[in-house]
Amino acid sequence: MINRTCGLFILLSLFSVGAHAVTDEKMHLIDEMLILSGSLDNMRHMTKSVANSMVNLLAKANKKITPEVAKVLKIEVINIVEEEFIAKKFVHKMSYEIYDKHFSAEELRGLVKFYKSDLGKKLKSTQPLILKETTVASQNHLRSLQPKLKSRINAALKREGLL
User: Fold this and answer.
1) Who's near 90: CB < 8 A, 6+ residues apart?
2) What is the Cα 129 distance to its own chain's centre?
3) Residue 123 and residue 118: Cα distance in Å, rounded?
4) 66-81, pLDDT tens digit by residue?
5) CA-based angle 93:39:22, to the nearest 5?
6) Which of 62, 81, 95, 131 qualifies as a FRET site for 46, CA 20 to 30 Å off?
7) What is the DSSP track for 55-82?
8) Using one digit for the tens of pLDDT, what is the confidence trace for 126-135?
């Protein structure tokens, strides 16, 4: 029995090597920064954009997807991401580990202070516009690359004997 207990203790110890708990202070600072920076709102905007793009691609590929079906698909994708990433706090939990790894508590306090400043507030208010403009510019550039992409893919498929 003692050997089993010792073995279990050693096994559990091995799994916890390198793992450490994020302090309550850092979690609070990260939560505050996620709100102040607009990260949660940006995730919602990105989700809508990704859902729209994904469903539009599916609709192009499958003519059985009517506008009504596409609308339901978009709503469900958005709802699932909202539930899993926001409501169940996955974004927070993920952010705790990531920000803890890269920022000290003092640096996080500095970020919070920045996002409370006028410049930080301006950054937050313009981020959705910047994201939207960046997305449109990227989509336009990708559209302009379609002939090149098609040519390169066809050449690669021919080279591999698949076309």
Assistant:
1) 84
2) 18
3) 9
4) 889 888 988 888 888 8
5) 30
6) 62
7) HHHHHHH-TT--HHHHHHHHHHHHHHHI
8) 988 988 898 8
